[in-house]
Amino acid sequence: MDIKNVNAPVSTTTIDKNLVDAPTDNIYEAIAIMSKRATQINTEIKKELLEKLDEFATYNDSLDEIFENKEQIEVSKFYEKLPKPHSLAVQEWLDDKVYYRDTKSDNA
Fold first, then answer.
1. Is residue 93 part of a domain?
2. How many domains does the chain have?
3. Residue 5 gets which letter from DSSP?
4. Domain for residue 107, yes or no?
5. Pick from 45, 55, 63, 102: most CB atoms within 10 A?
6. What pLDDT is attached to residue 85?
7. 6 vs 35: which has the higher pLDDT
8. What is the pLDDT of residues 17-69, one digit of tens each?
9. Which helix (H) or strand (E) holds 66?
10. Residue 33 lies in a domain
11. What is the residue-wise DSSP string for 11-65?
12. Helix 27-54 × helix 85-94 angle, to 10°
C-alpha cells in the first residue's frame, strides 16, 4: 500500500450513509468490513514505521547518552501527519478498492 499517494481526508468528514452501504445494502456489514480493513492498514503502517525507526536504534547499555536524531524525528512527524487508518479504510471502501465476499452465499 502506498500511503504517500492517498487522497483520504486527515480530518473528520461527513459521508452519505447511502454511499457507504451501497455495495452491501447493509450499513453494519459495510462498517465491519471497513473496520477490518482499518486494522490491516494500521498493522501495515505500524510495521513499516517500526522498521524505519529500527534503523536509528542504538544498542547501548548506557542510559546516560540519549541522542536526538533529526532524521528519526522527521520520520515520526511524517507518520503523525498521515490520515488515520480508519479514514484510509473508508476512502478505499468508497473508491471500491476493498475486496470482500459474502460467505453466506458461498456456502449456500
1. yes
2. 1
3. G
4. no
5. 45
6. 93
7. 35
8. 999 999 999 999 999 999 999 999 999 999 999 998 888 776 665 555 556 67
9. none
10. yes
11. S-----HHHHHTTTS-HHHHHHHHHHHHHHHHHHHHHHHHHHHHTT----S-SS-
12. 130
